[in-house]
Amino acid sequence: MNNEKFVDGLKLHVRDAAVSDIISKLKEPPGRRILPQIKLLSEWYKSLAEEDITKINSIIELTAHEVLFGVLAVLDGARVIDEEKGQLELVYEIQDAKVRLNNPSEIGLHELLNASN
């Protein structure tokens, strides 16, 4: 695992999966006891013209990307979440090897996300 594989994994298994899950819930809410908010949004979504659905799906994609970008910016130290401005270290460990994925001497994870979009 390196920082590029990590970001690629997050894009596929977090960002893209979230987009797919939300769109699926809007098309067909799962379960027997659907939350009223989900039911209302689903009915509204299904009433839209195809062009508007495409726009909403794009908004969902942009939102998921920006959330992931923000989290990665925090991990990189580019976005501060506390007054003490501490440093976060993200380490991938397997067997006897440790790899720091948010190494400050390398390209930031948030930059990798946008570079390979």
Characteristic key phrases:
117 residues; mainly alpha; two-stranded antiparallel ribbon; 2 strands; 7% strand; elongated
Q: Briefly, what is this?
A:
With 117 residues, the chain is mainly α. It has helices at 3-27, 36-47, 50-76, 109-115, and strands at 91-94, 97-100.
Describe this structure in words.
A hairpin with a 2-residue loop joins strand 1 and strand 2. The protein has one domain (3-115). It has helices at residues 3-27, 36-47, 50-76, 109-115; strands spanning 91-94, 97-100. Helix 1 packs across helix 4. The protein has four helices and two strands, in the order H-H-H-E-E-H. The model has no long low-confidence stretch (mean pLDDT 95). The two termini are 19 Å apart. It has a two-stranded antiparallel ribbon with strand order 1-2.
Q: Strands of the biggest beta sheet: in what spatial order? A: 1-2
Distance from N terminus to C terminus (CA atoms, Å) equals 19 Å
Large-scale geometry: elongated
Overall mean pLDDT: 95
Radius of gyration: 18 Å
Tell me the structural class.
mainly alpha
E-strand count = 2
How many domains?
1
Give the number of helices.
4
Question: Secondary-structure blueprint of this entry?
Answer:
Blueprint: H1 3-27, H2 36-47, H3 50-76, E1 91-94, E2 97-100, H4 109-115
